[in-house]
Amino acid sequence: MRLPLIAGNWKMNTTVAEAVALVKEMRGGLDEVANVEKVICPPFVSLQAVRDLIKGTSIKLGAQNLYFEEKGAYTGEVSPLMLAELCEFVIIGHSERRQYFNETGEIVNKKIKAALKVGLKPILCIGEKLEENEAGKTEAVVTGQLKSSLAGINYTASLVIAYEPIWAIGTGKAATSQQANDTIGLIRRTVSGMYGKASAQEIRILYGGSVNAANTTELMKQPEIDGALVGGASLKASDFLSIVRQAAAIRK
Predict the structure, then answer these.
(1) 3-class DSSP state of 138
(2) C-beta neighbour count of 94 within 10 angstroms
(3) Catalytic residue among 94, 96, 128, 224
(4) Residue 89 in contact with residue 121, Cβ under 8 Å?
(5) Is 88 one of the catalytic residues?
(6) Of the residues 37, 103, 128, 164, which is catalytic?
(7) According to the CATH classification, is domain 5-250 in 2.130.10.10?
C-alpha cells in the first residue's frame, strides 16, 4: 500500500516569526501521527528556522519552488543546491507559477531534472482551468502537462504528482471526491503508459484544491488518492492536524 502524504503549501504567507509560532503549535501533534508522511512547505526565508524546529521529528520539510540552474547571475532565484542542504521536497509547476510567472512545460521539466540531480523529491503539480474542464478538455490538458513535465526523465520513486484543478485552488470549490479520483486514475494510467504498471502502482498522486478538514475523509477514501497538497488549511494548526489525522485513520 502506498504511504499517504499530506503536504502543506503555505504559499506567500507567514513571516519567520509567524512560521516559527505555527510550527511550534502543531509540531507535537504532527509528530505523533504514524503511517502518514507529513511535509510542510514554508516560504524560502523560513526554511532554516523551520528545519531547526522539526529536527528529530517525523515531519519533513519542502520548498515551494526552485530555479533550474545550480548557480550564476540569476538575481533573486534559489538554486537546487541551496535547497538540498535544507529540505527534502520541493513543489514544482504549481498553477500559480504557471499562471503568474509564465512557467511552461519546458521550464517545469528543467526544474524537475535539476531537483532530481541534487536528490530533492519533486511534487509535480498539474491541473486544468475551469474553461478547460467545462469544455471537456481535462484529459488532454492533464496528460499533456504530465508528459511535457516529465519528458526525458526516467521514473523514480521519489517523484510525487499532485492533481490540482485550477478552478478549485483557493476558491473553496473543491472537486468532488469522485471527480478527483477519476482524474487521478487517468493520471495513473498515463504514468503506466510512460513507465509501466509497476511504477504507476508505486507512485503517489495527491489531490489539491480547497482541501480542508471537512472534505479530507471523503477524499482519502478514494482508492486512487494518496494524500493531499493543502493550501489555506495548512496555515491553521488545528485544521492541518485534523487533515493529517484523518488521512492516518483512513489508511490504517
Answers:
(1) helix
(2) 27
(3) 94
(4) yes
(5) no
(6) 164
(7) no
List the domain boundaries for the chain: 5-250
Task: Tell me the mean pLDDT in the region 167-183.
Answer: 85
pTM above 0.90, yes or no: yes
Q: What single letter denotes the amino acid at residue 127?
A: G
DSSP 43: -
State the residue for C-alpha cell 508522511.
Answer: 37
Q: Indicate if 94 belongs to the active site.
A: yes
**pLDDT tens column, 199-248:** 999 999 999 988 999 999 999 999 999 999 999 999 999 999 999 999 99
Which amino acid makes up residue 86?
L
Q: Which three cell numbers stand for residue 9?
A: 503549501
Write the pLDDT tens digit of every residue in 124-147. Answer: 999 999 889 889 999 999 999 999
What does the alpha-carbon distance between residue 121 and residue 88 come to, in Å, rounded to a whole number? 6
Alpha-carbon distance 22 to 54, whole Å?
Answer: 12
* DSSP secondary structure, 157-195, as one string: TT-EEEE--GGGTTTS-PPPHHHHHHHHHHHHHHHHHHH
How much is the pLDDT for 175? 81
Interatomic CA distance for residues 244 and 141, integer angstroms: 30
Question: Average pLDDT in the 34-57 region?
Answer: 98
